[in-house]
Design brief:
Helices cover 51% and strands 14% of the residues. By secondary structure, the protein is an alpha+beta fold.
């Protein structure tokens, strides 16, 4: 009986510990090691977030805004998924930056449970494409548990580089 209790406890605790370890590994991998004009990058040069004392960087905040303007309709609030599309706050843990860009820009078709599902291409939608880094950064912060659900209460000021890039990309 005692052995059965121990085995049951391990069966419950081990997956939780593995999940926590993966989240910690992901957080370390997503850590900002370099900043250029207010934008943060990880050790591999991928865009990432910086959250200090409850204040999110501009790009994470803007990613929240842009995600909720165009993506949440299918993928649910805060990247938590819906009956229509997967939880991006989870899948972002398992895909790299280049794959994310490719899927959003080019779209994707697949069969799930015998049913075809389609992610439309957003490569020509400037309201999405011009802010792909920001959306990725926000979802990355959500994926590793660094950003809670809901609108970030405090944000850094918008960097001049973000204003210049936005004008250039949007054609203004």
């Amino acid at each position: 009986m005692f052995a059965r209790f121990i085995i049951s406890a391990v069966a419950v605790v081990l997956p939780l510990a593995i999940g926590t370890a993966r989240a910690e590994d992901s957080k370390e991998k997503a850590a900002s090691v370099k900043e250029e004009d207010g934008k943060h990058f990880d050790a591999e040069g991928n865009p990432t977030f910086k959250i200090e004392n409850g204040v999110v960087d501009w790009y994470t905040f803007n990613g929240y805004r842009r995600y909720h303007a165009d993506c949440h309709v299918c993928h649910g609030p805060d990247g938590e998924g819906s009956s229509y599309a997967p939880a991006l706050a989870k899948t972002t843990r398992n895909i790299d930056y280049g794959t994310f860009l490719s899927i959003v820009a080019e779209g994707r078709k697949s069969v799930v449970g015998g049913k075809e599902v389609v992610m439309p291409a957003f490569g020509e939608n400037k309201n999405v494409y011009c802010y792909l880094d920001d959306i990725y950064i926000y979802l990355r912060a959500r994926a590793v548990g660094a950003a809670p659900r809901g609108r970030p209460p405090k944000k850094a000021d918008k960097p001049e580089a973000a204003t210049a890039y936005e004008a250039s990309c949007m054609g203004g």
